[in-house]
Amino acid sequence: MRADPFFTIITPVYNRPDCIIRCLESISGQAYNSYEVIVINDGSTDDTLQKIKSIASKFTIFKLINYPENRGVNFARNRGIERAQGKFIIFLDSDDTLTIDALVTIEKSINQYPNFFHYLFKISDRIDDKNIPDEIYEYQFKDWLSGKASGDYVNVIQPSCFNGLMFVEEFRIYESLNWLRVLRQNQKQLFIPSVVIQVERDRPDSVTREYILDNKISMQNTYNFLYKFIDWYHTDFKTLGLLNSLRSHIKKGFFLGVALGETARNEYLIKQLESTTFERKLYKFMNNHVFSPIFYRLIIAKSQYNKIKKKNYENQPSYLLL
Question: What is the pTM of this model?
Answer without folding.
Answer: 0.89
